[in-house]
Amino acid sequence: MKKLLFRKFIQHNIRIFLAIILSIGSIVWILQSVNFLDFITDDGHSFKVYFQYTLLNFPKIIHRILPFVFFISLFYQIALYEENNQLLVFWIHGVKKIQLINIIIAYSILLTLTQIILGGFISPKAQDEARSFIRNSDMDFFPFIVRPGKFVDAVEGLTIFIEKENKKGFYENIFLKDDLGNNITEMKSQIIFAKNATLINSKERRYFKLFDGKLIKINNDQIDVFEFKSIDFDLSKFTTKTTTFPKIQEVATHILMRCIIFEYNNELEKFKDNNYLTCNTTRIYKVRQEILKRFFLPIYIPLIALISCLLILKSKETKDYRFLKFLLFATIFFVIVISEISLRYSSYNIASILFFTLFPILSFLTIYIILNMKLRYKI
After folding, report:
1. Are residues 204 and 279 in the same domain?
2. Cβ(271)–Cβ(255) below 8 Å
3. Residue 18: other Cβ atoms inside 10 A
4. Domain that holds residue 227
5. For residues 259 and 263, what is the distance between their CA atoms, to the nearest angstrom?
6. Is the domain of 220 the same as that of 272?
7. DSSP string, 326-341
8. What single-letter DSSP state applies at residue 214?
9. Do residues 306 and 368 make contact, with C-beta atoms less than 8 angstroms apart?
10. Are both 179 and 50 inside the same structural domain?
11. Tens digits of residue pLDDT in 346-365
12. Over the stretch 159-192, which tens digit does the pLDDT of each residue have?
């Protein structure tokens, strides 16, 4: 009978957990997908690329909200069971409170392992696949740079303003600013004003044909001005501003671990992986933080489960039950906040790393030992 009660409890929590995480995850995914519409409107990617990219970001969303959703589902279930007197069924059938707590802890450890797999392998792989769709996209963003009445900088190094388009398909009053590779020691650019222009967009060549205007070339402090009747402005050298180099959360775990190993051996200068990761003294802190997020942040989940289980200690009939419920809810929320804040500063020195990794473990052991001693002889 005890095994049946435990199984029913876990199955009920899984149903609540899945309902909440899929609901919240879907809402966050939709909101995020709206933000990604720039891939179509500004950069000219296809709807297929847009859908694939947004869909592959869903595991990242689940990974980020999982600890909070687990806390909500478990806390809600325990409070619901107490309100409906369902916990009495456990005690009547000889289930000790510490036995139920141990089952919940074991369940939370399995969820912790799931979170590690999701954050350490599935989410980075999905995000890298999503970025690969952007890198390999056969896009045509040039029609999107023509927007009469707006300044457009959808392509790197080029700003365009077109006043209007006439009935014959010609653009009137064109402004183009082309950055010709600016750096600290040298500033080069050219500015073009034209009364009329047309966009030639063929497979062989893409360019603006400009009529009746001025070309201003700027080289540091030197400025040259030329008038023209007709010139072509080549667009083939320009590329989209969409980021194609992987962000650190998209890099595979084994590459991040290689970076950590090279740092440990004082050989960062020998690390080479230009396609995925720049590993140097300025980036190593981010790499450490990402490793801690993937493999150590999930250990807060059993602590969250244990604190939630403290709600079992008191009956709803006691005067301070509501206060205890509020106190435990606030405590768990505080623990989640602490985990996120300590993660941000965890990679800067040994003390911060030790606090981030040891705080949940020591807190869990302390609470569990005290709880076990208190409940040892109680039902």
Report:
1. no
2. no
3. 12
4. 142-234
5. 6
6. no
7. HHHHHHHHHHHHHHHH
8. E
9. yes
10. no
11. 888 888 889 999 999 999 99
12. 888 888 887 778 899 999 888 765 555 668 899 9
